[in-house]
Design brief:
Blueprint (H helix, E strand, L loop, with lengths): L1 H8 L4 H12 L2 H24 L18 H14 L3 E5 L5 H12 L5 E4 L6 H7 L14 E4 L10 H7 L4 E7 L12 H14 L4 E5 L18 E5 L13 E5 L1 H11 L15 H30 L4 E3 L11 E4 L3 H13 L21 E5 L11 E5 L5 E5 L4 H17 L12
Parallel strand pairs: 2-3, 2-4, 4-5, 5-6
Antiparallel strand pairs: 1-7, 6-7, 8-9, 9-12, 10-11, 11-12
Helix pairs in contact: 3-4, 3-10, 5-9, 10-12, 11-12
Bound molecules: pyridoxal-5'-phosphate.
Pyridoxal-5'-phosphate (PLP) binds next to helix 5.
């Protein structure tokens, strides 16, 4: 069979290949469901582009102050329509997801205000932003206090404690959709909608912000369709579709986005300025591609969970659960397996396949981190990538794959690497 030959050429053993084919044959209906969601979201994107009369002129480069930049302004209306918000800020000047979140928070909080996280500890890099970990320039230094309500043991929201935590100072509530580097479940849009409704019933004028990283286009709706005042994310994740080389977005209410504009540039200038750096075509085309790119990444995540669960590794989400982001966590139980997994992913890459990842210190993270990525855009995690903090339970967080077939190869290579290093039992492949 041609397919056997091509995978053996890629270094995958026959035993592993036939194991993976058996796994794959059980996933047909789930893949079909993913394609339906992608189809729905594709229509949303096309419709938003048509309504806003996107034209070739939108792809022109602006320079300097970027006054009257129709490409930039139209793109922001496309985002706002696509996500059902009043306005949006979508800029190449936003460096990454952390920057977008930091911007959204600092733009809308003032000294004396309190920030509440009702869903436990936020993403590692936000600890520095908020000042949970002392950091120059943090919100804490500007007199913004922080309060957190941890999740219940079953990952549910602790509604009683959340009610108690909301007080006259509470200005903004931050909800992280994706699990990040935790092993909790990722929240569905429905679950987030319920939490927002609860919070608004207690304090209607509180700003509800959702860290939307990795969740975009996984479902048919977004938190902004259910009362979130801001949704925030990175363009080198889902919405950049693998084409955006930089950037971040915030979609939200007119007031919140206006504040973000003033914070991004300067009070008094706001959204009116900012060159598009000649990146508009990639931003538009990336958004256009994003629904099907996210579908490919989701197929990879589900494939990985099924492959690894049958090898007796604990997977979050598990092989059967519904998906609310593109991240797959696999608890590998030892640093050796973690490193082997990342080596395998790296060796499957179109770029830098010959290098070997090693653990190291990373700005913003408090334990050593190992990362595998052979990406066209540096650090892009919508492209096939894996990262893991070196701490028990040695869970690897695996995500992305601009194409499903690349994701498939990456997962097979990760298993192959462990087989080659005798870190998993070959006999297990026969048990299915
Ligand atoms: C990736 C991520 C961030 C931070 O984004 P960067 O682009 O890495 O700065 C924040 N929150 C969540 C949930 C993320 O997944």
């Amino acid at each position: 069979m041609l397919q056997d030959n091509i995978y053996s050429l890629m270094g995958i053993s026959d035993e592993l290949f036939s194991y993976s084919e058996k796994i794959l044959s059980t996933l047909e209906s789930r893949f079909k469901e993913i394609d339906k969601t992608a189809e729905y979201n594709q229509m949303k994107v096309i419709s938003a582009m048509q309504i806003n009369r996107v034209s070739a002129a939108c792809f022109n480069e602006s320079t300097g102050y970027g006054y009257d930049d129709i490409g930039r302004d139209t793109l922001e209306r496309v985002y706002a329509d696509c996500f059902g918000t009043e306005d949006a800020l979508v800029r190449p000047q936003i460096t990454c997801g952390t920057h977008a979140l930091s911007l959204a928070l600092s733009a809308n909080l003032r000294p004396g205000d309190e920030l509440l996280s009702p869903a436990g500890k936020p993403y590692d890099t936000l600890e520095g932003v908020i000042g949970i970990r002392s950091s120059p320039g943090s919100l804490a230094e500007y007199g913004v206090t922080y309060r957190q309500v941890d999740l219940l043991p079953d990952d549910g929201f602790d509604y009683d404690k959340i009610r108690d935590a909301i007080n006259e100072k509470t200005k903004l509530v931050t909800i992280q959709r994706s699990k990040g580097y935790q092993t909790r479940e990722t929240f569905s849009v429905e679950k987030i909608a319920k939490l927002i409704k609860f919070v608004k019933e207690i304090k209607p004028d509180v700003i509800c912000m959702v860290d939307n990283c990795y969740g975009e286009f996984v479902e048919r709706t977004e938190p902004s369709n259910f009362g979130a005042d801001m949704i925030v994310g990175s363009l080198i994740k889902n919405l950049g579709g693998g084409l955006a080389p930089s950037g971040g977005y915030i979609c939200g209410t007119k007031q919140c986005i206006e504040n973000c504009g003033y914070r991004l540039t300067a009070p008094g200038l706001g959204k009116e300025v900012g060159t598009n750096m000649g990146l508009m075509r990639q931003f538009y085309q990336g958004l256009f591609m994003a629904p099907s790119v996210v579908a490919g990444a989701l197929k990879g995540a589900i494939f990985a969970a099924n492959i690894y669960e049958h090898l007796d590794f604990h997977c979050v989400p598990n092989s059967q659960e519904s998906r609310h982001d593109i991240i797959q966590a696999v608890e590998l139980g030892s640093p050796e397996r973690l490193i082997a997994f990342c080596k395998g992913i790296q060796s499957a890459a179109p770029v830098d396949s010959y290098v070997s990842p090693v653990p190291g210190d990373m700005p913003g993270y408090d334990s050593q981190v190992i990362m595998a990525a052979g990406a066209f855009v540096q650090g892009s995690s919508i492209e096939l990538s894996a990262d893991a903090p070196l701490r028990p339970p040695y869970a690897v967080y695996f995500q992305g794959g601009i194409t499903w077939h690349h994701a498939k190869l990456g997962i097979l290579k990760s298993v192959q690497q462990m087989l080659d290093e005798n870190l998993i039992d070959k006999e297990k492949l026969k048990e299915i």
